[in-house]
User: Fold this.
Amino acid sequence: MSEWTAGYVADIGYTYGYYSELNPLRLRLAFLNQGLAFPEVGAACELGFGQGLSANMHAAASLVQWHGNDFNPAQAGFAQELAAAAGAGAQLTDESFAEFSARTDLPQFDYIGLHGIWSWISDENRALIVEFIRTRLKVGGVLYISYNTLPGWAAFAPMRHLLTLHAQVQGSEGQGIVGRIDGAFEFADKLLEANPGYTRANPGVPERFKKVKEQNRHYVAHEYFNRDWEPMHFATLAQWLEPAKLQFACSAHILDHVDPLNLTPQQQTLINATSDITLRETTRDFIGNQQFRRDYWVRGARKLSPLEQSEALRAQKVLLTTPRADVTLKVTGMLGSAEMSEAVYTPILDFLADHKPRTLAQVEQAVRDKGVPFIQVLQAMLVLSGAGHLMAVQDDALIAKARKHTDKLNAYIMQKARGSHEVGYLASPVSGGAVAVTRFPQLFLVALSQGKKQPSDWVPVVWALLQAQGQKLIKDGQALETPEENLAELLSQATAFAQKQLPILKALMVA
Assistant:
């Protein structure tokens, strides 16, 4: 493995994922729920941006000036391609952490994001990142960081060690990383069949290993097969970040803010009686056997007054991004599935069903005669946002300025969808981020942009494109063989898209 990779898998590209936690707009609701002041983000940076999808979506969909770095030149090349298409000025490079940290032409940042790199790099690179944060994050600025956590990884870590050891000593460079992964999986299957004492002492390992084998090999390579791989306790991360003067603010996983979904009354009493933040969060990780944390840290936490918190919360705008009929009154937290109160959620969802941006004050006013107080409105906003049904909304002036860039980026991505399914997201100037739109819906939007008004008009356009590439649709795991079957399935998908997803994409100014 070449030296420039620093032990990180580089012979297979990372997945084309989008991570909404990196959207600076999302931190407002989380911070306000905790009564914390948040920065107005003008400059932001993503370290280890992978294919650069998140960085480009956020640069195009806002007025934030984004910088970013990823050591992999192939990934940086794709990211730069997207940046050029959007024209939003995102500055994305392929330098090492040492080179990027040494630059003198970077601004001071209001926001720095690291998604999925902290656990997979060396201590030397962690130290460089901490120094970068210390010197580049403004007072009041926010760090978003996600990482593999103990104790949740404690049982499976030995299995990961075995897999990587087999790939190193039994695999060969000529196989490529996918071949070495498959060989390691085959070996591990034989070990588990031999009923080792390890799995008798850790009975959950075989099922977890089964789920790993089912995952995308590109994801598996980057998740499990890097040289450096170190889950850590919350307290250990806090020690790492201390030189940068960072304080823990709150979880970036919004459902973590709703204690009844995650903690029993006894557990809540235990947590609330723990005043030390480090001990409290570590205890919470033990309660949930946490495997992965997504957190906000701030350089100088400042509490809002109750009046400031109340006014800022009520001014927060949201938009329902799931069809009203598809929002089930169930949500899953650490305690499992929970039922949402119909008396609370039905009037709220009915009010938001037209997919228009509304402030929490407007929601409060609309449901007041239903006996729903603001504290329940706020909890509902947290639950619906955490479940993926709500998005925060930018100010109108920002939306108007960002749309020219999102239109350009989306047009470019949709053209790529003609021959590829890799990028399954489009940018929204309304949410300041991205929304999931898979390949065929993107192609329906292409047909719509060509003046084809009805779903029945989109189908011939898309089918002609698929035929030219020798492609067929898959339904229930089987390829559809005849043109008639393919056309019927396309029409079914187009009709459903027009009825359900298209109105939401219009509200988000994606369509």
